[in-house]
Amino acid sequence: MTAKILILDFGSQYNxxxxxxxxxxxxxxxxxxxxxxxxxxxxxxxxxxxxxxxPASVHEKGSPRCDRRIFDMNVPVLGICYGMQLIAxxxxxxxxxxxxxxxxxxxxxxxxxxxLFEGISRRTFTVWMSxxxxxxxxxxxxxxxxxxxxxxxxxxxxxxxxIYGVQFHPExxxxxxxxxxxxxxxxxVCSIRPDWTMESFIEKKIPELREExxxxxxxxxxxxxxxxxxxxxxxxxAIGKRLHCIFVDNGLLRKGERERVRLAFEKHFGMxxxxxxxxxxxxxxxxxxxxxxxxxxxxxxxxxxVFEEASKKIGNVKFLAQGTLYPDVIESxxxxxxxxxxxxxxxxxxxxxxxxKLRLIEPLRELFxxxxxxxxxxLGLPEDIVSRHPFPxxxxxxxxxxxxxxxxxxxxxxxxxxxxxxxxxxxxxxxVWQAFAVFLPVKAVGVMGDQRTYENVIAVRIVTSSDGMTxxxxxxxxxxxxxxxxxxxxxxxxxxxxxxxxxxxxxGTIEWE
Length: 513
Ligand code: XMP
Known about the structure:
With about 525 residues, this protein is an alpha/beta fold. It folds into 3 domains: about 5-190, Class I glutamine amidotransferase (GATase) domain (Rossmann fold), CATH 3.40.50; about 200-385, HUPs (Rossmann fold, 3-Layer(aba) Sandwich), CATH 3.40.50.620; about 400-500, GMP Synthetase, Chain A, domain 3 (2-Layer Sandwich). Helix content is about 35%, strand content about 25%. It is built from 15 helices and 18 strands. The chain has a 9-stranded mixed β-sheet with strand order 2-1-3-4-9-8-7-5-6, with helices on both faces. Strands 12-11-10-13-14 form a 5-stranded parallel β-sheet, with helices on both faces. Helix 6 (about 225-240) links the parallel strand 10 and strand 11. The longest helix is centred in the middle third of the chain and has 23 residues, at about 290-315. The chain is globular. Residues about 335-345 have low confidence and may be disordered. The structure holds xanthosine-5'-monophosphate. Xanthosine-5'-monophosphate (XMP) binds next to loops.
């Protein structure tokens, strides 16, 4: 049985990071809202519990709590920031508001002998702090394990009950030895044998997928992106020819995508692949439409129609495989502390399974994106697919402003290809979240030879981000931008101007739409 760490969410922005850090130590972890019932916690049967940070104060009315019985389950507990204060509060310590918030890099001095800090040679090291409360009276049965200049109890422990607390954030990269502190909690306090690896995940998943699908046929919408590619490959390993992949060419794809997908999945992996040429259909539906939301709706609806028709050709299908990932299914706790239980449906193929009376199969729903990439590599997926940038479901439509026409898409596709090509050639591709071209709905004056020109403008958008929720424009060296611009203007017919987008998100978004 795989050991599990349960992370109770008290509204911290770092929750997914805690889960990922635990998993990087080869221990499986799940995140649940702090409000889940004791019964549910017992059913999860964790080998350790981490109480996350959060923006509230324990002495505020209505601040988030978890079931108190977790402290009597004989399961080790680690409280981080708010989680530590909650432990203090529960065991009759005293937590008070500080005059000044402690935020950012702070020097932490550990006491000798704590299991959490074993293997750290320095007595004093840098940690990342973000709190406005501190513990002024030690909770009953606890002893201090470390301090900072303004926080006399920045870590404590009750070794007998295996309950530990840190005021700082070990999950944040700025905390020195943060990963080792978590590892100590997992292996020394919880006594877990770390065995959660992507190889073990594949080994466990393949028989499960065989069992789940029985003798039935399964379809999968293959887009060529990382998530759907790994989903398809994993299922192919498990059920071989009972998997049927459908690739819809909607005319909004990157240059050469259809051929690349054929080569990788049909030729190389020998998978069943139905390629549907729906280019004309999509373009016809999009004719004359300029409103971005309308474009999205049309593309979503048409995709479902095309996909449904294609699946009828396959016949007698019972399951639809989808590349849903763990961040899509985590129930989140709002910043105010109240659980919001917002579960996102996958934005690209939402609505399909119910309409087609199919059962959904989501082999990656336990995984984070970086884990999906590791699974992909282990299954032999080519590196250029494993490490590719995210590409939106509606494709180039969100990058072709104004009315979409075949001619504009051709210009955009060529320009986009040059951006990607130069990013790869300069080794910048892997350092950014996304890099692409945008076709603007304006024309500008230029001069070529002795001729005045009046042609299209391409915007180049290159951003850094860790999850797409916020982003910054990438500080790409001027010579590389110059090369991209020069090549687009010289090689793409109908473009006489290239501009670089220097807006961050927020207030801008990554796509232009
Ligand atoms: P925005 O433009 O909202 O984009 O800042 C955030 C991230 O989401 C991607 N994106 C999509 N991905 N289907 C997708 O699978 C979509 O409809 C979609 N729209 C935007 C975008 O490329 C960026 O990475």
